[in-house]
Amino acid sequence: MKQEPILLSARVRHPVSLIAVFLWIGFVCSISFMEAWLKFRAPGVSLALGLGIGRLVFAALNKAEWVFALLIALHLLIADDRLLKWRNLLYLLPLGLLTAQSAWLLPALDARAGLYMEGRQVPPSGLHFYYVGMEVLKVLSLFFFGVTHFRRYRS
Q: CA-to-CA distance for 103 and 105, rounded, in angstroms?
């Protein structure tokens, strides 16, 4: 008996926010988990040069993340889906983490990089560990939000 292949096809009613979720994940993974440490392995890239590049790249990443976050929030409002519902907690967590990174962590890391680039002595800090931890939490919650979001809005 010949079995027909199962085709997985679904239409998503609000694709922009779903695309924004997974693009956000892709941006964070490619920058935070690849570019951030690979640039220091490139021939001729000093720590000061790598820090300068990192400052530019992470500032751009932060702006892109806010665009994705606002697209998702706009969709949730348009879809008549209150932001404070239980299922949207997986969106509110990365939004809170992004806010903390933007208001506190990135400025602190940027200031440390600036001091180092000026040739000053910079004491050890755990700020990078906080940043990596936040990025991991952000990616995981965005992934699960995206999956539940897809299930909810497919038609």
A: 7
Contact 24, 68 (CB under 8 A): yes
pLDDT in tens, 24-81: 999 999 999 999 989 999 999 999 999 999 999 999 999 999 999 999 999 888 876 6
Of 87 and 16, which is predicted with more confidence? 16
What is the C-alpha R_g of the chain? 19
Local structure of residue 126 (DSSP, 8 states): S
- Give the Cα separation of 62 and 109 in Å (integer): 13
> In sequence order, which residues have a C-beta less than 8 Å from that of residue 117 and are 6 or more positions away?
48, 51, 52
Rounded to 10 deg, the angle between the 106-117 and 47-78 helix axes is 160
Nearest to 89 by CA among 31, 136, 141: 141
Number of H helices and E strands in the chain, helices first, is 6, 0
Tokens of 52: 């300068």
Token readout for 12 is 């998503």
The domain limits of the chain are 15-153
| Cβ-based neighbour number of residue 144 at 10 Å | 14
Query: What confidence score (pLDDT) does residue 1 get?
Result: 57
Q: What's the predicted TM-score (pTM) here?
A: 0.88
